[in-house]
Protein backbone atom coordinates (compact mmCIF):
# COMPACT_ATOMS: atom_id res chain seq x y z
CA UNK A 1 0.00 0.00 0.00
CA UNK A 2 1.40 3.40 -1.00
CA UNK A 3 2.41 5.65 1.87
CA UNK A 4 0.47 8.83 2.48
CA UNK A 5 2.00 11.68 0.42
CA UNK A 6 3.65 14.48 2.36
CA UNK A 7 6.03 17.42 1.94
CA UNK A 8 9.59 17.54 3.35
CA UNK A 9 9.96 18.81 6.90
CA UNK A 10 10.15 22.59 7.02
CA UNK A 11 8.30 23.13 3.73
CA UNK A 12 4.64 23.88 2.99
CA UNK A 13 1.92 23.84 0.37
CA UNK A 14 -0.07 27.05 -0.04
CA UNK A 15 -3.80 27.18 -0.73
CA UNK A 16 -5.30 29.69 -3.20
CA UNK A 17 -6.35 31.93 -0.29
CA UNK A 18 -2.86 31.80 1.24
CA UNK A 19 -1.18 32.52 -2.08
CA UNK A 20 -3.44 35.55 -2.61
CA UNK A 21 -2.44 36.93 0.81
CA UNK A 22 1.25 36.28 0.16
CA UNK A 23 1.00 38.00 -3.22
CA UNK A 24 -0.66 40.98 -1.52
CA UNK A 25 2.36 41.33 0.81
CA UNK A 26 4.87 40.81 -2.01
CA UNK A 27 3.13 43.33 -4.26
CA UNK A 28 3.04 45.90 -1.45
CA UNK A 29 6.75 45.44 -0.78
CA UNK A 30 7.60 45.40 -4.49
CA UNK A 31 5.68 48.59 -5.29
CA UNK A 32 7.44 50.43 -2.47
CA UNK A 33 10.84 49.09 -3.51
CA UNK A 34 10.26 50.58 -6.95
CA UNK A 35 8.91 53.80 -5.45
CA UNK A 36 12.29 54.19 -3.71
CA UNK A 37 14.19 53.60 -6.96
CA UNK A 38 15.20 49.94 -6.56
CA UNK A 39 15.44 47.73 -9.67
CA UNK A 40 14.64 43.99 -9.78
CA UNK A 41 17.13 41.20 -10.44
CA UNK A 42 16.94 37.41 -10.08
CA UNK A 43 19.69 34.87 -9.45
CA UNK A 44 19.69 31.03 -9.75
CA UNK A 45 18.18 28.94 -6.97
CA UNK A 46 21.55 27.23 -6.52
CA UNK A 47 25.10 28.52 -6.64
CA UNK A 48 28.54 26.93 -6.80
CA UNK A 49 29.32 25.67 -3.29
CA UNK A 50 32.46 27.77 -3.03
CA UNK A 51 30.36 30.89 -3.67
CA UNK A 52 28.39 30.25 -0.46
CA UNK A 53 30.68 28.31 1.87
CA UNK A 54 32.65 30.35 4.38
CA UNK A 55 30.48 33.45 4.00
CA UNK A 56 28.06 32.92 6.91
CA UNK A 57 30.29 31.67 9.70
CA UNK A 58 30.56 28.11 11.01
CA UNK A 59 26.91 27.87 12.00
CA UNK A 60 25.70 29.20 8.66
CA UNK A 61 27.88 26.75 6.74
CA UNK A 62 26.22 23.87 8.59
CA UNK A 63 22.80 25.07 7.47
CA UNK A 64 23.59 25.20 3.74
CA UNK A 65 21.77 22.58 1.65
CA UNK A 66 24.33 20.90 -0.61
CA UNK A 67 23.28 19.35 -3.92
CA UNK A 68 24.74 16.00 -4.90
CA UNK A 69 26.10 15.81 -8.43
CA UNK A 70 23.84 13.71 -10.60
CA UNK A 71 23.45 12.43 -14.15
CA UNK A 72 26.50 10.56 -15.44
CA UNK A 73 28.83 12.04 -12.83
CA UNK A 74 29.71 8.74 -11.16
CA UNK A 75 30.06 6.99 -14.49
CA UNK A 76 32.26 9.60 -16.13
CA UNK A 77 35.86 8.37 -15.97
CA UNK A 78 37.01 11.99 -16.17
CA UNK A 79 35.48 12.65 -12.75
CA UNK A 80 38.31 10.96 -10.89
CA UNK A 81 36.83 10.55 -7.45
CA UNK A 82 38.93 8.87 -4.80
CA UNK A 83 36.34 7.11 -2.65
CA UNK A 84 37.12 6.50 1.02
CA UNK A 85 38.25 2.94 1.67
CA UNK A 86 35.20 2.29 3.80
CA UNK A 87 32.10 4.27 2.83
CA UNK A 88 30.19 2.30 5.45
CA UNK A 89 32.36 3.88 8.11
CA UNK A 90 31.11 7.28 7.03
CA UNK A 91 27.45 6.33 6.83
CA UNK A 92 26.38 7.22 10.35
CA UNK A 93 23.05 8.39 11.71
CA UNK A 94 24.38 11.08 14.01
CA UNK A 95 27.08 13.64 13.44
CA UNK A 96 28.05 13.18 17.08
CA UNK A 97 29.38 9.69 16.33
CA UNK A 98 31.82 10.90 13.67
CA UNK A 99 35.35 11.36 14.98
CA UNK A 100 37.63 14.08 13.62
CA UNK A 101 39.36 11.89 11.02
CA UNK A 102 36.03 10.58 9.73
CA UNK A 103 34.70 14.13 9.47
CA UNK A 104 37.74 15.19 7.43
CA UNK A 105 37.30 12.24 5.08
CA UNK A 106 33.57 12.87 4.80
CA UNK A 107 34.12 16.54 3.97
CA UNK A 108 36.66 15.59 1.30
CA UNK A 109 34.26 13.10 -0.20
CA UNK A 110 31.18 15.30 -0.16
CA UNK A 111 33.23 18.17 -1.56
CA UNK A 112 33.90 16.07 -4.64
CA UNK A 113 30.32 14.91 -5.12
CA UNK A 114 28.61 18.17 -4.12
CA UNK A 115 29.87 21.16 -6.06
CA UNK A 116 26.64 23.17 -5.84
CA UNK A 117 24.33 24.31 -3.04
CA UNK A 118 20.92 25.92 -2.64
CA UNK A 119 21.27 29.61 -1.88
CA UNK A 120 21.23 30.39 1.87
CA UNK A 121 20.26 34.05 1.43
CA UNK A 122 20.07 36.67 -1.30
CA UNK A 123 22.95 38.87 -0.11
CA UNK A 124 25.93 36.70 -1.07
CA UNK A 125 24.44 35.81 -4.49
CA UNK A 126 23.89 39.56 -4.97
CA UNK A 127 27.56 40.22 -4.19
CA UNK A 128 28.51 37.56 -6.72
CA UNK A 129 26.14 39.14 -9.27
CA UNK A 130 27.69 42.61 -8.77
CA UNK A 131 31.22 41.33 -9.27
CA UNK A 132 30.29 39.20 -12.26
CA UNK A 133 28.35 42.01 -14.00
CA UNK A 134 30.32 45.02 -12.71
CA UNK A 135 31.00 46.32 -16.23
CA UNK A 136 27.28 46.41 -17.05
CA UNK A 137 26.05 47.98 -13.80
CA UNK A 138 25.55 51.71 -13.17
CA UNK A 139 26.75 52.54 -9.64
CA UNK A 140 25.38 53.23 -7.11
CA UNK A 141 23.31 50.15 -7.94
CA UNK A 142 19.95 49.88 -6.18
CA UNK A 143 18.51 46.40 -6.55
CA UNK A 144 15.65 44.46 -5.06
CA UNK A 145 15.17 40.72 -5.15
CA UNK A 146 12.19 38.60 -4.06
CA UNK A 147 13.00 34.89 -4.27
CA UNK A 148 13.05 31.74 -2.10
CA UNK A 149 16.08 30.64 -0.04
CA UNK A 150 16.81 27.39 1.78
CA UNK A 151 18.33 26.58 5.18
CA UNK A 152 18.75 23.22 6.90
CA UNK A 153 17.40 24.80 10.07
CA UNK A 154 15.24 23.40 12.86
CA UNK A 155 11.66 24.30 11.81
CA UNK A 156 9.60 26.23 14.37
CA UNK A 157 6.91 28.89 14.52
CA UNK A 158 7.62 31.36 11.72
CA UNK A 159 10.84 29.58 10.67
CA UNK A 160 11.00 27.18 7.74
CA UNK A 161 13.61 25.41 5.65
CA UNK A 162 12.26 26.97 2.48
CA UNK A 163 11.13 30.56 2.63
CA UNK A 164 11.09 33.79 0.66
CA UNK A 165 13.34 36.76 1.27
CA UNK A 166 12.50 40.23 0.03
CA UNK A 167 15.73 42.25 -0.12
CA UNK A 168 16.64 45.79 -1.11
CA UNK A 169 20.33 46.77 -1.33
CA UNK A 170 22.40 49.72 -2.49
CA UNK A 171 25.98 48.99 -3.50
CA UNK A 172 28.62 51.50 -4.55
CA UNK A 173 27.89 54.27 -2.05
CA UNK A 174 29.17 54.95 1.46
CA UNK A 175 26.63 57.71 2.08
CA UNK A 176 24.66 57.36 5.31
CA UNK A 177 21.67 58.84 3.50
CA UNK A 178 21.13 55.30 2.24
CA UNK A 179 20.57 54.13 5.83
CA UNK A 180 18.16 57.02 6.36
CA UNK A 181 16.20 55.98 3.26
CA UNK A 182 16.12 52.32 4.30
CA UNK A 183 14.59 53.27 7.65
CA UNK A 184 11.98 55.26 5.73
CA UNK A 185 11.43 52.28 3.41
CA UNK A 186 10.71 49.98 6.35
CA UNK A 187 8.27 52.54 7.74
CA UNK A 188 6.54 53.01 4.38
CA UNK A 189 6.09 49.28 3.70
CA UNK A 190 4.73 48.39 7.14
CA UNK A 191 2.45 51.43 7.12
CA UNK A 192 1.14 50.36 3.70
CA UNK A 193 0.41 46.90 5.11
CA UNK A 194 -1.50 48.43 8.01
CA UNK A 195 1.06 47.04 10.47
CA UNK A 196 1.55 50.02 12.73
CA UNK A 197 3.88 50.25 15.72
CA UNK A 198 6.78 48.10 14.49
CA UNK A 199 10.13 48.88 16.12
CA UNK A 200 13.10 49.37 13.81
CA UNK A 201 16.06 48.48 16.02
CA UNK A 202 19.42 49.88 14.97
CA UNK A 203 22.98 49.43 16.18
CA UNK A 204 26.45 49.76 14.65
CA UNK A 205 29.23 47.19 14.37
CA UNK A 206 31.77 49.91 15.17
CA UNK A 207 30.04 50.50 18.52
CA UNK A 208 30.27 46.81 19.40
CA UNK A 209 33.94 46.77 18.39
CA UNK A 210 34.51 49.95 20.42
CA UNK A 211 32.93 48.47 23.55
CA UNK A 212 35.05 45.34 23.23
CA UNK A 213 38.13 47.58 22.83
CA UNK A 214 37.28 49.72 25.87
CA UNK A 215 36.91 46.69 28.14
CA UNK A 216 40.06 45.06 26.78
CA UNK A 217 38.26 42.20 25.03
CA UNK A 218 38.80 42.99 21.35
CA UNK A 219 39.96 39.42 20.77
CA UNK A 220 36.67 38.17 22.19
CA UNK A 221 34.31 40.43 20.21
CA UNK A 222 32.09 37.57 19.00
CA UNK A 223 31.88 35.93 22.45
CA UNK A 224 31.08 39.30 24.02
CA UNK A 225 28.35 40.24 21.54
CA UNK A 226 26.75 36.77 21.46
CA UNK A 227 26.40 36.90 25.24
CA UNK A 228 25.15 40.51 25.26
CA UNK A 229 22.54 39.61 22.63
CA UNK A 230 20.93 37.25 25.18
CA UNK A 231 20.25 40.01 27.73
CA UNK A 232 16.47 39.94 27.25
CA UNK A 233 16.44 36.12 27.48
CA UNK A 234 18.77 35.23 30.37
CA UNK A 235 19.06 38.57 32.18
CA UNK A 236 22.07 40.51 33.46
CA UNK A 237 23.40 37.75 35.73
CA UNK A 238 23.14 35.15 32.97
CA UNK A 239 24.99 37.37 30.49
CA UNK A 240 27.77 38.13 32.96
CA UNK A 241 28.14 34.45 33.80
CA UNK A 242 28.47 33.53 30.12
CA UNK A 243 31.00 36.32 29.52
CA UNK A 244 33.17 35.12 32.41
CA UNK A 245 32.98 31.55 31.09
CA UNK A 246 34.25 32.87 27.75
CA UNK A 247 37.28 34.45 29.43
CA UNK A 248 36.09 38.04 29.80
CA UNK A 249 37.42 39.46 33.09
CA UNK A 250 35.46 40.77 36.07
CA UNK A 251 37.18 44.12 35.57
CA UNK A 252 35.86 44.27 32.01
CA UNK A 253 32.33 43.61 33.25
CA UNK A 254 32.57 46.58 35.60
CA UNK A 255 33.41 48.83 32.64
CA UNK A 256 30.50 47.48 30.62
CA UNK A 257 27.98 47.81 33.46
CA UNK A 258 26.16 50.83 31.89
CA UNK A 259 24.96 48.58 29.07
CA UNK A 260 22.80 46.59 31.49
CA UNK A 261 20.70 49.64 32.30
CA UNK A 262 20.69 51.15 28.83
CA UNK A 263 17.44 53.12 28.66
CA UNK A 264 16.03 56.48 27.61
CA UNK A 265 15.42 58.21 24.30
CA UNK A 266 17.60 57.72 21.25
CA UNK A 267 19.45 60.92 22.15
CA UNK A 268 19.92 59.74 25.76
CA UNK A 269 21.45 56.47 24.56
CA UNK A 270 23.75 58.29 22.14
CA UNK A 271 24.99 60.45 25.06
CA UNK A 272 25.61 57.37 27.24
CA UNK A 273 27.53 55.63 24.44
CA UNK A 274 29.62 58.74 23.76
CA UNK A 275 30.74 58.74 27.39
CA UNK A 276 31.39 55.00 27.49
CA UNK A 277 33.36 54.96 24.21
CA UNK A 278 35.30 58.21 24.62
CA UNK A 279 38.63 56.35 24.49
CA UNK A 280 37.74 54.34 21.34
CA UNK A 281 38.13 56.06 17.98
CA UNK A 282 36.26 53.22 16.27
CA UNK A 283 33.44 53.35 18.82
CA UNK A 284 33.00 57.12 18.55
CA UNK A 285 32.82 56.84 14.77
CA UNK A 286 29.97 54.36 15.18
CA UNK A 287 28.19 56.76 17.56
CA UNK A 288 28.53 59.60 15.04
CA UNK A 289 27.08 57.44 12.27
CA UNK A 290 24.09 56.48 14.39
CA UNK A 291 23.55 60.10 15.41
CA UNK A 292 23.51 61.18 11.75
CA UNK A 293 20.89 58.55 10.89
CA UNK A 294 18.78 59.31 13.97
CA UNK A 295 18.86 63.10 13.52
CA UNK A 296 17.82 62.95 9.87
CA UNK A 297 15.12 60.34 10.39
CA UNK A 298 13.74 62.53 13.20
CA UNK A 299 13.81 65.58 10.92
CA UNK A 300 11.95 63.74 8.16
CA UNK A 301 9.62 61.87 10.50
CA UNK A 302 8.19 58.33 10.41
CA UNK A 303 4.54 57.49 9.75
CA UNK A 304 3.92 54.60 12.16
CA UNK A 305 7.25 52.89 12.94
CA UNK A 306 9.51 53.54 15.93
CA UNK A 307 13.30 53.86 15.58
CA UNK A 308 15.19 52.57 18.63
CA UNK A 309 18.88 52.17 19.42
CA UNK A 310 19.48 48.62 20.67
CA UNK A 311 23.10 48.19 21.75
CA UNK A 312 22.60 44.41 22.18
CA UNK A 313 21.77 43.96 18.49
CA UNK A 314 24.60 41.96 16.98
CA UNK A 315 23.34 40.13 13.89
CA UNK A 316 25.53 39.47 10.85
CA UNK A 317 28.88 40.25 12.47
CA UNK A 318 30.65 38.13 9.86
CA UNK A 319 29.97 40.73 7.18
CA UNK A 320 28.25 43.82 8.62
CA UNK A 321 30.69 46.66 9.26
CA UNK A 322 28.45 49.63 10.06
CA UNK A 323 24.75 50.01 10.79
CA UNK A 324 22.80 46.90 11.81
CA UNK A 325 19.00 46.74 11.50
CA UNK A 326 16.36 44.45 12.94
CA UNK A 327 12.59 44.96 12.90
CA UNK A 328 10.36 43.75 15.72
CA UNK A 329 6.60 43.25 15.32
CA UNK A 330 4.21 45.25 17.52
CA UNK A 331 4.34 44.12 21.16
CA UNK A 332 0.81 42.68 20.89
CA UNK A 333 2.27 39.81 18.81
CA UNK A 334 4.86 37.28 19.97
CA UNK A 335 7.11 36.82 16.97
CA UNK A 336 10.79 36.87 16.08
CA UNK A 337 12.24 39.58 13.88
CA UNK A 338 10.26 40.40 10.74
CA UNK A 339 13.12 42.18 8.98
CA UNK A 340 16.80 42.94 9.24
CA UNK A 341 19.91 44.11 7.46
CA UNK A 342 22.96 46.33 7.68
CA UNK A 343 25.99 48.00 6.12
CA UNK A 344 28.75 45.86 4.60
CA UNK A 345 31.81 47.81 3.49
CA UNK A 346 33.54 45.08 1.52
CA UNK A 347 31.20 42.15 0.88
CA UNK A 348 32.15 42.04 -2.80
CA UNK A 349 35.78 41.78 -1.70
CA UNK A 350 35.21 38.06 -1.11
CA UNK A 351 34.85 37.77 -4.89
CA UNK A 352 37.75 40.06 -5.78
CA UNK A 353 36.06 43.46 -6.07
CA UNK A 354 37.52 45.61 -3.29
CA UNK A 355 36.18 48.76 -1.62
CA UNK A 356 32.61 48.38 -2.87
CA UNK A 357 30.49 49.43 0.08
CA UNK A 358 26.86 48.42 0.32
CA UNK A 359 23.88 48.49 2.66
CA UNK A 360 20.66 46.54 2.53
CA UNK A 361 17.56 45.35 4.34
CA UNK A 362 15.32 42.31 4.13
CA UNK A 363 11.63 41.68 4.85
CA UNK A 364 10.59 38.34 6.38
CA UNK A 365 7.59 37.44 4.21
CA UNK A 366 6.49 34.38 6.20
CA UNK A 367 6.61 36.07 9.57
CA UNK A 368 4.93 39.20 8.24
CA UNK A 369 2.14 36.94 6.94
CA UNK A 370 1.71 35.37 10.39
CA UNK A 371 1.61 38.78 12.07
CA UNK A 372 -0.98 40.17 9.63
CA UNK A 373 -3.05 37.01 10.10
CA UNK A 374 -2.94 37.21 13.90
CA UNK A 375 -3.88 40.89 13.89
CA UNK A 376 -6.53 40.35 11.17
CA UNK A 377 -4.96 43.03 8.98
CA UNK A 378 -5.50 41.43 5.57
CA UNK A 379 -8.05 43.46 3.56
CA UNK A 380 -11.35 41.67 2.98
CA UNK A 381 -11.01 42.40 -0.73
CA UNK A 382 -8.10 39.95 -1.02
CA UNK A 383 -9.52 36.82 -2.57
CA UNK A 384 -8.37 34.10 -4.91
CA UNK A 385 -11.91 33.56 -6.14
CA UNK A 386 -14.07 34.98 -8.90
CA UNK A 387 -16.48 37.85 -8.33
CA UNK A 388 -19.25 36.02 -10.16
CA UNK A 389 -20.05 32.71 -11.81
CA UNK A 390 -22.28 32.40 -14.88
CA UNK A 391 -24.69 29.49 -14.64
CA UNK A 392 -24.50 27.08 -17.58
CA UNK A 393 -27.91 26.21 -19.13
CA UNK A 394 -26.58 24.79 -22.38
CA UNK A 395 -24.42 25.68 -25.37
CA UNK A 396 -26.43 28.62 -26.74
CA UNK A 397 -26.83 30.12 -23.25
CA UNK A 398 -23.14 29.50 -22.53
CA UNK A 399 -22.17 31.41 -25.68
CA UNK A 400 -24.35 34.37 -24.61
CA UNK A 401 -22.75 34.25 -21.16
CA UNK A 402 -19.25 33.94 -22.59
CA UNK A 403 -19.72 37.09 -24.67
CA UNK A 404 -20.45 39.02 -21.47
CA UNK A 405 -17.60 37.28 -19.65
CA UNK A 406 -15.17 38.34 -22.36
CA UNK A 407 -16.15 42.00 -22.00
CA UNK A 408 -16.09 41.87 -18.17
CA UNK A 409 -12.59 40.40 -18.13
CA UNK A 410 -11.40 43.33 -20.26
CA UNK A 411 -12.56 45.49 -17.35
CA UNK A 412 -10.35 43.38 -15.02
CA UNK A 413 -13.37 41.76 -13.35
CA UNK A 414 -12.78 38.16 -12.29
CA UNK A 415 -15.67 36.06 -13.63
CA UNK A 416 -16.08 32.53 -14.92
CA UNK A 417 -18.52 30.17 -16.59
CA UNK A 418 -19.42 26.87 -14.95
CA UNK A 419 -18.08 24.45 -17.59
CA UNK A 420 -20.75 21.74 -17.49
CA UNK A 421 -24.48 21.84 -18.19
CA UNK A 422 -25.54 20.11 -14.96
CA UNK A 423 -28.28 20.69 -12.40
CA UNK A 424 -28.44 24.33 -11.35
CA UNK A 425 -28.35 23.32 -7.66
CA UNK A 426 -24.95 21.70 -8.17
CA UNK A 427 -23.63 24.85 -9.82
CA UNK A 428 -24.82 27.00 -6.91
CA UNK A 429 -23.20 24.56 -4.43
CA UNK A 430 -19.94 24.93 -6.33
CA UNK A 431 -20.18 28.72 -6.05
CA UNK A 432 -20.83 28.48 -2.30
CA UNK A 433 -17.82 26.22 -1.73
CA UNK A 434 -15.64 28.63 -3.73
CA UNK A 435 -17.01 31.64 -1.77
CA UNK A 436 -18.06 33.29 -5.03
CA UNK A 437 -20.40 36.15 -4.00
CA UNK A 438 -22.54 36.46 -7.17
CA UNK A 439 -24.18 34.20 -9.72
CA UNK A 440 -25.29 35.43 -13.15
CA UNK A 441 -28.29 33.71 -14.70
CA UNK A 442 -28.56 33.94 -18.48
CA UNK A 443 -31.38 31.74 -19.75
CA UNK A 444 -33.94 32.04 -22.56
CA UNK A 445 -35.73 35.02 -20.97
CA UNK A 446 -32.51 36.97 -20.40
CA UNK A 447 -31.27 36.28 -23.92
CA UNK A 448 -34.60 37.45 -25.40
CA UNK A 449 -34.46 40.74 -23.43
CA UNK A 450 -30.67 41.14 -23.73
CA UNK A 451 -30.38 41.24 -19.92
CA UNK A 452 -28.89 39.22 -17.07
CA UNK A 453 -30.26 38.13 -13.70
CA UNK A 454 -27.69 38.90 -11.00
CA UNK A 455 -28.11 36.96 -7.75
CA UNK A 456 -26.32 37.93 -4.54
CA UNK A 457 -25.38 34.56 -3.05
CA UNK A 458 -24.91 36.09 0.42
CA UNK A 459 -28.25 37.91 0.76
CA UNK A 460 -30.28 35.97 -1.81
CA UNK A 461 -31.36 39.18 -3.54
CA UNK A 462 -31.80 38.92 -7.31
CA UNK A 463 -32.15 41.75 -9.85
CA UNK A 464 -32.43 42.04 -13.62
CA UNK A 465 -29.79 44.27 -15.25
CA UNK A 466 -28.42 45.10 -18.67
CA UNK A 467 -24.70 44.69 -19.35
CA UNK A 468 -23.75 48.13 -18.03
CA UNK A 469 -25.71 47.45 -14.87
CA UNK A 470 -24.02 44.07 -14.52
CA UNK A 471 -20.59 45.65 -14.94
CA UNK A 472 -21.34 48.40 -12.43
CA UNK A 473 -22.62 45.90 -9.85
CA UNK A 474 -19.54 43.67 -10.14
CA UNK A 475 -17.17 46.63 -10.02
CA UNK A 476 -18.79 47.94 -6.83
From TrEMBL:
<dbReference type="InterPro" id="IPR041715">
    <property type="entry name" value="HisRS-like_core"/>
</dbReference>
<keyword id="KW-0547">Nucleotide-binding</keyword>
<dbReference type="InterPro" id="IPR045864">
    <property type="entry name" value="aa-tRNA-synth_II/BPL/LPL"/>
</dbReference>
<comment type="similarity">
    <text>Belongs to the class-II aminoacyl-tRNA synthetase family.</text>
</comment>
<dbReference type="InterPro" id="IPR004154">
    <property type="entry name" value="Anticodon-bd"/>
</dbReference>
<feature type="binding site">
    <location>
        <position position="169"/>
    </location>
    <ligand>
        <name>L-histidine</name>
    </ligand>
</feature>
<dbReference type="Pfam" id="PF03129">
    <property type="entry name" value="HGTP_anticodon"/>
</dbReference>
<feature type="binding site">
    <location>
        <position position="315"/>
    </location>
    <ligand>
        <name>L-histidine</name>
    </ligand>
</feature>
<dbReference type="InterPro" id="IPR015807">
    <property type="entry name" value="His-tRNA-ligase"/>
</dbReference>
<keyword id="KW-0030">Aminoacyl-tRNA synthetase</keyword>
<protein>
    <recommendedName>
        <fullName>Histidine--tRNA ligase</fullName>
        <ecNumber>6.1.1.21</ecNumber>
    </recommendedName>
</protein>
<feature type="binding site">
    <location>
        <begin position="319"/>
        <end position="320"/>
    </location>
    <ligand>
        <name>L-histidine</name>
    </ligand>
</feature>
<feature type="binding site">
    <location>
        <begin position="121"/>
        <end position="123"/>
    </location>
    <ligand>
        <name>L-histidine</name>
    </ligand>
</feature>
<feature type="binding site">
    <location>
        <position position="151"/>
    </location>
    <ligand>
        <name>L-histidine</name>
    </ligand>
</feature>
<keyword id="KW-0648">Protein biosynthesis</keyword>
<dbReference type="InterPro" id="IPR006195">
    <property type="entry name" value="aa-tRNA-synth_II"/>
</dbReference>
<feature type="domain" description="Aminoacyl-transfer RNA synthetases class-II family profile">
    <location>
        <begin position="1"/>
        <end position="419"/>
    </location>
</feature>
<dbReference type="InterPro" id="IPR036621">
    <property type="entry name" value="Anticodon-bd_dom_sf"/>
</dbReference>
<dbReference type="GO" id="GO:0004821">
    <property type="term" value="F:histidine-tRNA ligase activity"/>
</dbReference>
<feature type="binding site">
    <location>
        <position position="165"/>
    </location>
    <ligand>
        <name>L-histidine</name>
    </ligand>
</feature>
<dbReference type="InterPro" id="IPR004516">
    <property type="entry name" value="HisRS/HisZ"/>
</dbReference>
<keyword id="KW-0963">Cytoplasm</keyword>
<dbReference type="Pfam" id="PF13393">
    <property type="entry name" value="tRNA-synt_His"/>
</dbReference>
<keyword id="KW-0067">ATP-binding</keyword>
<dbReference type="InterPro" id="IPR033656">
    <property type="entry name" value="HisRS_anticodon"/>
</dbReference>
<dbReference type="GO" id="GO:0005737">
    <property type="term" value="C:cytoplasm"/>
</dbReference>
<dbReference type="GO" id="GO:0005524">
    <property type="term" value="F:ATP binding"/>
</dbReference>
<keyword id="KW-0436">Ligase</keyword>
<comment type="subunit">
    <text>Homodimer.</text>
</comment>
<dbReference type="GO" id="GO:0006427">
    <property type="term" value="P:histidyl-tRNA aminoacylation"/>
</dbReference>
Amino acid sequence: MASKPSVPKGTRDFSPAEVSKRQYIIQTIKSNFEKFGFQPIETPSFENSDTLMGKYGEEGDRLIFKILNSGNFFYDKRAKIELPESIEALQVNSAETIDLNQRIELNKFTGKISEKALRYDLTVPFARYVVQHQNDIVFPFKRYQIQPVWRADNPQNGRYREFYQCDADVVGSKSLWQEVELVQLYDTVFTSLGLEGVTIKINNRKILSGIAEVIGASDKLIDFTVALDKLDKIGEDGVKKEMIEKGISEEALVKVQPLFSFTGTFADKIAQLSELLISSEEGIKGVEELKFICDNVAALGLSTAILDLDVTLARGLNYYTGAIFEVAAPKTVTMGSIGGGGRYDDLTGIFGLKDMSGVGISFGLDRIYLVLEKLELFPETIAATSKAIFINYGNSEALYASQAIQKLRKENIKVELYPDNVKVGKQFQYADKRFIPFAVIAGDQEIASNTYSLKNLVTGEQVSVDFEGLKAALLA
